[in-house]
Amino acid sequence: MSDQDVDDVAFLTGGVAGTDSPTGQPQKKTLYENNGVAACSHNRALCIATIVFALLFTIAIIIAFTGPQSALFTDCTCAGEKPPNYVGGETNLTRTFIPRATNGQIFPWNNVRLPTTLKPSRYNITIHPNITTLEVRGQISIEFHCDKDTNFIVLHSHNMTIVDKIIQDRRGHNLTIVKMLEYIGRQQLYIEIKEKFKKKHNYTLKIRFNTKLNKAQEGFYISSYVGSDGEKRFLAATHFQPTFARTAFPCFDEPNFKAKFKLTIFRDRFHIALFNTPVVNTDDLGFYMGTGLLRDDFQETAEMSTYLVAFIVCDYTNFRNLTDRGVSVSVYTPPSFNEKAKFTLDTATSALGYFEDFFGVPYPLPKLDLVSIPNLSKDAMENWGLITYRESTAVNNPGELSTSIDQWITTTITHQIIHQWFGNLVTMKWWSDLWLYEGFTTYLQYLGVENYYPEWKMLDQFILDKTQPAMALDALVSSHPINVAVHDPYEIETIFDTISYNKAAAIIHMLRNFLQEDSLQNGLNEYLSTYKYTTAETKELWNTFSKTINHTLDVKAIMETWTHQMGFPLISLTKEGSTILATQKRFLLSVKSGNDSVLPKSKYDYKWYVPLTFITSNDSESIHNVWMNMSDVSFDVDPDIKWIKANTNQSGFYRVMYEEEMWHSLIKLLKKNHTMFSAADRANLIDDAFTLCRAGLLNATIPLELSTYLIKERDYVPWATAIEHFQNWARRMSESLPYKLFLNYMRNLLRPITKYVGWKNSKNHVKGLLRAKVLSAAVLCELNETITEAKVLFQKWMLHNETLDSNLKEVVYSAGIKFGGMAEWQFCWNAYNSTSNSNERILLLKALGQPRGDPWLLQRYLIETLDKNTIRPEDVKVVLAVVAANPEGKLLAWRHLKAYWPTMHSLFGNSTSMMGSLISAVTAHLSTPYDYYEVTTYFNGMNVESASRALEQSLEIIQLNINWLNKNKEDIYTWLRKNVT
């Protein structure tokens, strides 16, 4: 048997070829024959025993200090020597780690990152998925270039069988493969050759492989939908971000290894196949290849990362449009949804044209397809030229869904189209910079929609949707910096949260304001032009912006104070004569804020470059700018000003604390003429006042006095901001003395605005959002007029099947269940189980958690979450959150999570970040010392894996709730008794 055969046998059998015993040594005769006897004297025995003991002791010492041969330090209990070409450098924080291949041998490459000595340039993929058997047969040819002499390749492969492998040089000569090893832990494949790959030479690796369509929503997976005829239909789709391309074909599955891709796919004639690029040829293979098989060959792609590759086999039909430049835009949906996809198509076509102009770089591909996928783990995925999105986005006609859903669809599609440039054309080198691409894209989606739907006031809504939630979380001691090193792609799930996405978008909003929009746009244009078809790092974008503004600002230095340290500043303003002193200190909600020793150290000492903006009573039209360069600052104003409003239009990521006299001046102006401030400024004042009260820096009477102006407010963003804080106050006080009076106060404020929005549909987009928000709040605080109207509409729907206005469904469903009984709840439960409309199902899930006075119904509802065939795992959080927000259900939700924690863990499998979101949802409104004790005790000593940050934040929030209630409930009660009739 040749050396090659020996190694192949070793790989295929999972053992060490050429050995006769489990230890890898030839079998020898035993020391004694079967009947042999060994004898020695007493002294000799003592001597031998002493020698043996000393020898064993010496071996033990050697093992203890040389480390990595014990089972504690390796994946395998068997010991082995490091191969001569072993590459280390991967050290765990607590121990040296030596990986082992599937056959027990030490895996020669010990690093989560692939070596950079070999770089792929082109993939030729041939693949045949059988949607019936789920079997997939494939063949791949990877052309690569050698940058440094080496004799091995390391690439990614997971859950596939390698049938054959060949490596050829540029002349087509086969190189001798002497070893192939697989390390499952990092999903890596190691192939060693007898010769060397020579520097500056090109080679080709060819692999034939078999795998299966995945049943989870990752990699190349099977999905299904129910057709108009009631039959279940199947399709195969891909989702490769961040590390799932390796489950579909062997590849260099890191974003910096960009290459061109060509695909050939076999399918039956009843399906179509889609790829990142258009099909260039279709051959009928005849019946000798299978019943009616066709082969599609697709155009080669531009250089791209593996996570952006996508292919789909389905029976969809499509709508098609052309941009002004002639780019084909198509929306593919199941046939029954086809007529409902036009809105998505129009949105995509408009967005593609707008961002071509905005970026100053033509869309680089000949087509853009958008494909509706019934089961998708994300809202959408930006695969280059082949965007996939969750089914609900397709089933849309203007007017059929609510205003908020229309807006969600528009922003979601816009987000993915922006990624075609910012993320796809230019890609991050490594996942540590994902926050930048997602942050920019999240912000630019609002900028884009603001441009083609200016009446939607998207930049005001950005403050509500992104800035405020990010600031709420980033004010916790348990927050984290935006820029956190990602050593392993699996860490992405734990790091990229509200901070990394929303805060990233918010600081980019701030960047745009101090650079001005033209400079931001010009910088992005130059960045995309310079780095197109390649990868880049964050610092290269910051440097491009500095260059764009002629280095008048050091953008990198400014932005790193916001990305490399957690939190944000509280800017305190004090006035003496004509001088304003602005000081900065990190803002923390926690009671621990006075104890700096509990905080992680920051090389910036928790100081920031702050672009402080303000207007004054003497000149409310002109926005003034002052830079706080990681320091305090003084500036002059007219000595007779009555007020100053800082952080104009909430353009900066910081909070502002005024002197008490200044707060009263601002409140007085709001009551007299609130339109002196923009809607964004009014929302900012509300948010700052309530949050500063939560932190114990402002007496509760200040936000209460400020909120009295709302009786005249008619704009969406200030009302939405106030309602969020009102509802949080109500939930915290649900067991306290001020609760009933506070609900009465809310009713007094809401009564005028509910009359203003009314019950009739309006073509005004923002008014539609406002109507849904205030009527829902009116139901929660039990405003009789709203409840009566909503119950009438519910009965008409329940008893007479009358159609409800899409913008009123959530209000009507909630009122019907909250103020109804078992019959109303059961009717909605039946409606949930009988509809296939995913948006309708979410609305019903939210409403079903609203019952009052019947804990049995809430308990029954929670039990239903354990059946994944009834409530989808991804919707379990919705149920737990709405029950926990119900004053009568918050303890039930917590007890349910405790009782079924192992069940939930098994339900979500590897998605431990979902477990973190469940903890956050269930504990958000707990506010007693016993609640804190309960949560702490239950999770004490438990390994919650990537949910640990969410657990830490949840405990901090419960403690905040306890402290806030103890400090403020008496002042709130006194104020309410004086001001509420």
From TrEMBL:
One of its GO terms (biological process) is peptide catabolic process. It comes from the Eukaryota. GO terms for molecular function: metalloaminopeptidase activity; peptide binding; zinc ion binding. The chain crosses the membrane at residues 45-67. GO terms for cellular component: cytoplasm; extracellular space; plasma membrane; side of membrane. Residues 643-959 form the ERAP1-like C-terminal domain. The keyword Protease applies. It is found in: Cell membrane; Membrane. It is an enzyme of class 3 (hydrolase). Zn(2+) binds at H415, H419, E438. Gene3D superfamilies: 1.25.50.20, 2.60.40.1910, Neutral Protease Domain 2, tricorn interacting facor f3 domain. It is a lipid-anchor; GPI-anchor; Single-pass type II membrane protein. InterPro entries: Aminopeptidase_N-like_N, Aminopeptidase_N-like_N_sf, ERAP1-like_C_dom, M1_APN-typ, Peptidase_M1, Peptidase_M1_aminopeptidases, Peptidase_M1_dom, Peptidase_M4/M1_CTD_sf. It holds the Pfam family Peptidase_M1_N. Binds 1 zinc ion per subunit. Its EC number is 3.4.11.-. Residues 343-562 form the Peptidase M1 membrane alanine aminopeptidase domain. Its main location: membrane. Keywords: Aminopeptidase, Glycoprotein, GPI-anchor, Hydrolase, Lipoprotein, Membrane, Metal-binding, Metalloprotease, Protease, Signal-anchor, Transmembrane, Transmembrane helix, Zinc. Belongs to the peptidase M1 family. This is Aminopeptidase.
